[in-house]
Amino acid sequence: MLIKDVCPACGSNRHKKNGHTRHGKQNYQCKACERQFSGTADDYLIAAERRTRVEHLLRERLSLRGICRAVGVSLTWLLHCMVDCLTACPEDLHVQLPAQPTAVLLSRLEAEADEMGSFVQKKANKQWIGMAMDATTRQMIAFHVGDRSGESGKALWANMPTVYREQATFHTDQYDVYQGVIPAEQHRAITKKARKTNHIERFNHTLRQRVSRLVRETLSFSKTLANHIGAIKYFICHYNLARRGALPV
Questions:
Q1: Distance between CA 68 and CA 182 in Å, rounded?
Q2: Predicted confidence band at 248 (pLDDT cuts at 50, 70, 90)?
């Protein structure tokens, strides 16, 4: 077996054998900084182009093991890469707010809100995804994952940009929670025949088809709530950039 010449952390060539990895490969420990590494660590260096492809596939309807097979990476590496991608997403979801809003523009600001069901770990652990969309630009302006209580409704409202909370008119279904969260003068509870929430309902289908862990009757469900929220946020951030023309859809 070829032993790595230097420590990947400090560059020292002084190392010793230190048992085996859980995959049965020889493990080494640096005598200078005590970093542990595998004797074949060079085989796991992922090129930037390959990593970019993985980042793209994380937004498609593929399971994690499917991505491993398609790209040729280990599940352990993929999990670390996925966490890096999810944690790098900005809190503002890349929402492009109205530039120098005027009174006329603010009076026309409209948004749609809706919710959709999901689960984490098991179907008995329901996690409802509340979302809001700008009716004109089709950008997703906020989302929240929780139950169907008033507290979750308040959390969704708190996540929305200030300009929407103060000026936008919100169209929703007749779900009771919205009545106590959105100010009455800004709220329009409508029926589906009014077709004022059709854009966000269409996005619900897009989200469910593009994020594998949200597909109905799927085996690619989320095992942790943090990754569940992160995967939704990761897709929404890219979706908003695509709506702005910064990225391909």
A1: 44
A2: low
